[in-house]
Amino acid sequence: xxxxxxxISGAQELLWERGYVGTSPKAVQLVAGAGxxxxxxxxxxxxxxxxxxxxRSAEEMRAAAEEQLGGAxxxxxxxxxxxxxxxxxxxxxxxxxxxxxxxxVADPELRAPVAETxxxxxxRLTEVVAEGKQNGEFPxxxxxxxxxxxxxxxxxxxxxxxxxxxxxxxxxxAVQGLxxxxxxxx
Amino acid sequence: xxxxxxxISGAQELLWERGYVGTSPKAVQLVAGAGxxxxxxxxxxxxxxxxxxxxRSAEEMRAAAEEQLGGAxxxxxxxxxxxxxxxxxxxxxxxxxxxxxxxxVADPELRAPVAETxxxxxxRLTEVVAEGKQNGEFPxxxxxxxxxxxxxxxxxxxxxxxxxxxxxxxxxxAVQGLxxxxxxxx
DNA sequence: GTCTATACAGTGATAGAC
DNA sequence: GTCTATCACTGTATAGAC
Lengths: 186, 186
What we know:
The structure is a homodimer. By secondary structure, the first copy, chain A, is mainly alpha-helical.
């Protein structure tokens, strides 16, 4: 793997763990096995490297979600698959984590990929829910846009509760609770 | 207001905005209008001051939640009141925010008040949902513990989506979506 | 209790040699 | 492209005077 790639994936890893504020160029160089001069040759500075790394993580998150949401099965099945897929719950969401970082939120260049990723996710979930409504899987009264936001929020909030607890349990409970509400035993 | 109090509430403010990793003793002294020596006279260091400040924020969050959850009305009404109460959505949750901080999660002393606050909140919501079941407000099939986790997660995740978007809208959508699911128009 | 002085590592970057 | 040197600044304290 080339130096540039190691710098990017090193930055992705550290941004995930420590956020932008908590990640220093030196720490990135260390995990990437690259020197000071090497990093500043490839990137103008911390912000530029972070921008690239965040973009990379955003792509990964979209691809991972699309794997279930665009897969086979009914709308209900695809949502259940998305909710139930294996996750590193205690690490949290690599993109959602950045919404807590003051400097990411303050810098339009850094916030953009974060905003776009969640816009995409909510839009994609809205489509799947709407599709399920048309097929009679969901009641006519269900609002797809609201429901999509709720689904995304349960996952992001589940990570928060799990990290706070130091255990994946609250995440699993929240997801099961949402599943129950979406699939009432009429 | 005395110096100690100004230091504590200054730390609360900065921890909310920037997290533990992003908050320096010097910055706290600045917003508190206190000198270096003054801070280190009252607190052993950054971690100890943070511990006190987090405990204070935890109390505040509990009190705010209990205002609606322990108020008048049916279980459904109290949950709706809790969900709908006015919030500084773009600032996020002062306690939930800390679950993203690597050094808070890593230090048992700092994580404890965060963990306890969410344990309390989920427990309190569990009680209210259970009460609603007994009164026939919620279906017999509803699991109180799961539902409680889902409610807490929607709020925490709503903050994440809102900060990512730079707008309270996703938070409001997520909460409305949850409300719809909890109050189906049978 | 509060102040100033001092210390020493880390941050984020630039300069110039190789 | 990568390395080492250097820099001004901040982070997190400690020491001792007042």
